[in-house]
Design a protein that fits this description.
Largest interface: A-C, 42 and 47 residues
CATH class of the largest domain in chain C: Mainly Alpha
Helix content of chain C: over 70%
Strand content of chain C: under 5%
Helix content of chain B: 25-40%
CATH class of one domain in chain B: Alpha Beta
CATH topology of one domain in chain B: Rossmann fold
Order of helices and strands of chain B: EEEHEEHEHHHEHEHEEHH
Shape of chain B: globular
Structural class of chain C: mainly alpha
Strand order of the largest sheet of chain B: 6-7-8-3-9-10
Strand content of chain B: 25-35%
Number of helices of chain C: 12
Chains: A mainly alpha (268), B alpha/beta (252), C mainly alpha (307), D alpha/beta (256)
Number of helices of chain B: 9
Structural class of chain B: alpha/beta
Radius of gyration of chain B: 18 Å
Distance between the termini of chain B: 40 Å
Distance between the termini of chain C: 8 Å
Oligomer: heterotetramer
Largest sheet of chain B: 6 strands, mixed
């Protein structure tokens, strides 16, 4: 019963999430204006038919910029989470399975990175690197992959004690076989759930860095930096802040909810 | 005649928070072909550690292990798996939750694939062929445990090391597993170490028993002799406890 | 016990040294020349000669390891160097910023803890009741809001629309209100979730059933549940300090609160390396110390957890 | 008969949204030891949880009468006072009776205060003596997590008897213990029961143990009581197929 409800929830939110991804991926289909075209005649126009979300102080279409900006945010988030997921899982699995020096090195490194507040490190690193979105992604990725590595390491350690892994040893199976056939498939689900729950946090982090001017380089559209720019004239053109803000909130809520729903499903 | 399995003066210590704890002290045993040796003790007696040492999952600090007279101390499960198989207490987790039973059993075959042989062993443990396509979660604990016995036989190893294999099961499932073990023993093809906390259960399956306490072997011998005339006080206590858990009934 | 503590502190110092080294290395490798930044900001015409002289003066021409060693020895003596921007010593700047940041961070932390502790208990005790559902929705939504968004929206509605507060924060209570709320909302959301989970875990422990079965009064049971949750709650709070530090950088920049976060953002644009280094080291030290402290506290409160 | 302490009539109960008990009829007679025997999933533990009004258990239909009074008619506050002093309860988990990280003394005092009585050290000492717990003051000063399973379970028993209940429910109280400890715990329990004239309902999967302890046995299978009666009758002349199978399957000491 609980499982059924959780399943329906997952399907529902997944559709929403896919819709978001689709709309931002094919932004060109929905937005007819060029997000980078400035129009001196239409500065800070209120939402109207031609500009559904109005324009900013350079006369750029906010609607188009929200859609294209979503592409930047979502793509960067997915890429970052995916890369951290892959690196973290592989390293964690190897360290957990073989133990020894590799394991101790990993744990030491994890201790060091986790001993520091993630955003503080990210702000410092992104500030120093200063190369736009890549810099922001690297600065968040430094600590993020470690959380995946720790998770998959601890799962590998407990899987190693399971009877079926032990039995595989007695059946004379090779390390590679055990890792690929037994450990990886069985650890995928929990680590993947963690990846889902990280999406929202990562979005908050990335847009926060962009907001501070440590993310994308203007004029590239990105929600955080759009809000940061438009904040200066919020009194005259509040729509230039509201719509990207709304987009950010909706997106984060959808992905956070997806993560929660999957977690509920796994616990039910 | 050589013993099929023999351990001499096995010692093992574990480092823990409160300093070293001794898990095994000078434990020696032997097992002959076709025989079942019961290892009885309460929690912390070292009986499970002994089984792990014998199987190669952990290496003893000192002492030696022999299979058919050949020393195999220090060999890891990949190697020892050629002549012995372990059956664990938790039957369900002995099978990959994502695999159908048949694939899990075939895995134990060390490269050979012989479906007819698998079926033969499945029948021997009293299970249906149809169960082979199921996943462990779709089987009961007792069925899973009999599957793992079938798997151990399919691997071709002649020695079974059973670690509390019925203590997670219900009485009726336990009875089925016991029946299977008895049948296999009567066939004469199985030699086994049978670790359990339940001396009554052990008495139904084993030829000889070894009583363990605090990492030491306190008594070893023919089952009938030990039950009727226990020498050590601890053994006496165990038997007395077991008597009190027996069904008080003249008819049975 | 004492031996373990000493071992831990040694480990911490090691970690801090490693991290500062990495950040130093990163600055060394990163593009952007502080000397050039400084000269252009002072309006000096940048020629090769002037640039080299300035680099020499700032000590940028010395080998990397020498620079790091000099810096490290300085830090040990409490000397964080001299700002590239205005030649003022860094330490007093950081200290002043830290003071202001602490006011902000502690106020929002206390508000968050008080609110979420109460909501967490109510939510866990009346699981699946109306209150629980409302609290869960609240915590879920506020957890999904980036604090810069809350800050911008609060500013728009409270300052511009309703003119309740000044746009630029001063050091008084009125000025403190909005930054504190912006920091507290998402943090409260996270706390409520975690504390609710912790209380629920405690409530489903066997000892609660045992006490109920013995007819122990509800308030005694609740007292035991809270008592046993405290250890974990300290850990939860300590781990959130990191997010709080990052968040305060954003919030301070928005509200122009003269804290350490605003200082570091200004320094990043100016490539003022000594300040950035100082920021990382101070924040890292505080975070690490708080987490160690919470571990010790956790062990004191629940002796079953290992130190 | 007027000596029924508890009457269970046509009880239907759900645990976590699944109907686990499907029509239970069972009486508990004053002064007896009733053993409810069943395997996992038979619903035997749910039955006890229904009586102590556990929140995870939902009553669908039927009634439970304690001395003729319907227990669902009690208000929560009144029932809380009844639990402990009238109806006691001990769990399988030996550490389940007390908060593991607070001293036992503090928790005994809380229990006493909940029922408006003062904490009587001498009375507790007597009970602990019967249970073979020697050093009462030292035990009172320690926390349960520092104690062994057997010791903790004994203290749980002491806590129950301290309140002198008329009816005591024991849910698999020995199955987490070693065999020899389990036997002595059972023996001490019986001694206390005889001293204090308590009625005991004991849930267990162990038919052998039940046959040694019980005056009457009820066999549960898949949410129903399939057979109940005097211990000798059940053992000598089992009616139900399931009981017969259970009797056959219990291992006994044998020399092969």
């Amino acid at each position: 019963m609980k499982k059924r409800i959780a399943k329906i929830k997952i399907i529902f939110v997944s559709i929403l999430a896919l819709l978001l991804i689709f709309v931002t991926c094919f932004a060109g289909l929905f937005a007819h204006n060029d997000p980078y075209a400035t129009n001196a005649l239409a500065i800070r126009t209120a939402p109207c038919l031609q500009y559904p979300f109005g324009t900013d102080n350079l006369g750029r279409c906010v609607f188009a910029r929200v859609l294209y900006g979503g592409r930047t945010t979502i793509a960067a988030t997915f890429l970052l989470v995916f890369i951290s997921f892959v690196i973290g899982t592989v390293v964690g699995m190897i360290a957990g399975y073989f133990g020894g020096l590799a394991d101790r090195l990993l744990m030491r490194f994890a201790d060091i990175t986790l001993a520091f507040p993630q955003m503080v490190v990210a702000i410092a690193v992104a500030g120093i690197l200063g190369t736009g979105m890549t810099g922001a992604m690297i600065s968040l990725g430094i600590t993020m992959w470690v959380s995946f590595a720790r998770l998959s390491r601890s799962h590998t350690l407990s899987l190693k004690n399971e009877g079926y892994i032990q039995t595989a040893f007695f059946a004379g199976k090779s390390d590679l076989y055990i890792i690929m056939i037994h450990i990886f498939p069985n650890l995928l689900a929990p680590v993947f759930t963690n990846a889902l729950t990280q999406i929202g946090t990562t979005m908050i982090g990335l847009s926060g860095l962009s907001f501070l001017g440590l993310g994308v380089i203007p004029p590239k559209a990105e929600w955080g930096s759009m809000i940061s720019e438009a904040r200066a004239y919020i009194q005259i053109a509040p729509w230039a802040v509201f719509y990207p803000a709304l987009a950010t909130i909706v997106t984060i809520i959808v992905f956070n909810y997806l993560g929660d729903a999957v977690m509920d499903y796994r616990e039910a | 005649m050589e013993h099929i399995l023999e351990g001499k003066e096995l010692n093992k210590r574990f480092a823990s928070e409160k300093g070293d704890t001794t898990a095994l002290t000078d434990v020696s045993f032997y097992l002959d072909k076709g025989e079942v040796l019961g290892i009885v003790g309460e929690s912390g007696s070292g009986k499970s550690t002994l089984l792990k040492v014998v199987s190669g999952m952990i290496t003893p600090d000192s002492g030696d292990l022999f299979h058919d007279g050949k020393k195999y101390t220090g060999q890891k499960p990949r190697k020892t798996g050629e002549f012995l198989q372990v059956i664990f207490q938790d039957a369900k987790s002995s099978f990959d939750p994502r695999m159908p039973m048949e694939r899990s059993i075939a895995e134990a075959g060390r490269g050979r694939a012989d479906r007819a042989l698998i079926l033969e062993h499945i029948k021997k443990v009293g299970l249906d062929e149809e169960l082979l396509s199921r996943k462990p979660s779709q089987l009961s604990g007792g069925q899973c445990q009999r599957m793992s016995i079938a798997r151990a036989f399919y691997s071709g190893a002649g020695i079974l090391l059973c670690d509390e294999i019925t203590s997670a099961l219900d009485v009726s499932s336990q009875a089925q597993v016991v029946k299977v073990m008895k049948n296999l023993k009567n066939d004469g093809k199985m030699s086994a170490l049978f670790v359990s906390h339940d001396i009554a259960l052990v008495s139904m399956i084993c030829n000889r028993i070894m009583v363990m306490k605090d990492g030491r072997c306190v008594e070893q011998g023919e089952i009938g002799k030990i039950i009727s005339d226990p020498q050590h006080e601890y053994t006496r206590k165990l038997i007395e406890s077991a008597r009190k858990q027996e069904i008080v009934n003249e008819v049975y | 016990m004492i031996k373990k503590l000493i071992k831990r502190i040694a480990g911490l110092i090691f970690i801090l040294v490693i991290l500062s080294f990495l950040v130093f290395l990163l600055m060394y490798l990163a593009p952007g020349d502080p000397a050039e930044k400084r000269l252009t900001s002072q309006g000096v015409a940048v020629t090769k000669q002037v640039l080299d002289a300035e680099r020499e003066r700032l000590g940028l021409l010395k080998p990397f390891l020498v620079r790091y060693a000099e810096w490290l020895f300085g830090v040990v003596r409490g000397d964080f160097g001299v700002s590239f921007k205005d030649d003022m010593p860094v330490a007093p700047k950081l200290l002043q910023g830290l003071k202001n940041t602490s006011i902000l961070a502690l106020s929002s932390l206390i508000i968050s803890i008080v609110i979420s502790f109460t909501l967490g208990i109510v939510s866990a005790e009346k699981k699946n009741g109306i209150a629980d559902h409302i609290i869960r929705v609240f915590s879920f939504v506020s957890n999904s809001l980036p604090n810069f968004l809350i800050a911008v929206l609060l500013m728009y509605f409270l300052c511009i629309r309703l003119s309740l507060f000044p746009v630029i924060a001063k050091g008084d209570f009125q000025g403190l209100f909005m930054p504190v709320i912006s920091l507290a909302i998402p943090m409260t959301g996270r706390f409520v979730r975690q504390m609710r989970a912790e209380f629920m875990a405690q409530l489903s422990e066997d000892y609660v059933t045992g006490m109920r079965g013995r007819g122990v009064k509800r308030r005694f049971i609740l007292f035991n549940v809270i008592r046993n949750s405290l250890g974990h709650i300290f850990t939860i709070v300590a781990l959130q300090i990191g997010t709080l530090m990052g968040g305060s950088v954003v919030i301070e920049s928005i509200f122009r609160w003269p804290g350490i976060g605003k200082l570091v953002m200004d320094s990043i644009t100016a490539r003022d390396y000594p300040v950035i280094m100082g920021f990382v080291v101070i924040m890292g030290t505080i975070y690490v110390l708080i987490n160690q402290l919470s571990d010790v506290l956790c062990h004191k409160l629940d002796p079953r957890t290992r130190l | 008969m007027g000596n029924k302490i508890l009457e269970i009539k046509n009880l239907h109960v759900a645990y976590e949204e699944k109907e686990v008990l499907t029509g239970i009829d069972l009486d508990v007679i004053k002064g007896e030891v009733l053993c409810i025997v069943g395997e996992s999933g038979s619903g035997k533990s749910t039955l006890i949880r229904t009586v102590i009004k556990d929140k995870a258990v939902k009553l669908i239909d039927g009634s439970i009468l304690y001395f003729g009074q319907e227990i669902s008619s009690f208000r929560e506050r009144d029932y809380q006072k009844l639990l402990g002093t009238e109806i006691g309860f001990i769990q399988q988990n030996p550490w389940g009776a007390f908060n593991p990280i607070r001293t036992i003394e503090a928790q005994f005092k809380e229990t006493a205060r909940s029922h408006g009585i003062s904490f009587d050290r001498e009375k507790l000492k007597d009970i602990m003596d019967t249970l073979g717990l020697k050093d009462t003051s030292k035990i009172l000063k320690s926390c349960p997590y520092e104690l062994s399973g057997g010791m903790s379970q004994r203290i749980a028993i002491a806590a129950s008897f301290y309140l002198n209940p008329k009816l005591l429910f024991c849910d698999e109280i020995t199955s987490a213990l070693d065999v020899s400890t389990a036997i002595s715990v059972c023996e001490e329990l019986c001694r206390l029961k005889n001293n204090m004239m308590t009625t005991i309902v004991m849930v267990t999967h162990n038919l052998g143990m039940a046959s040694n302890l019980a005056d009457r046995i009820a066999i549960m299978y898949k949410g129903e009581v399939v057979e109940e009666g005097k211990t000798e009758e059940i053992l000598r002349n089992p009616q139900h197929e399931y009981t017969k199978r259970l009797l056959r399957d219990v291992p006994g000491l044998k020399a092969v």
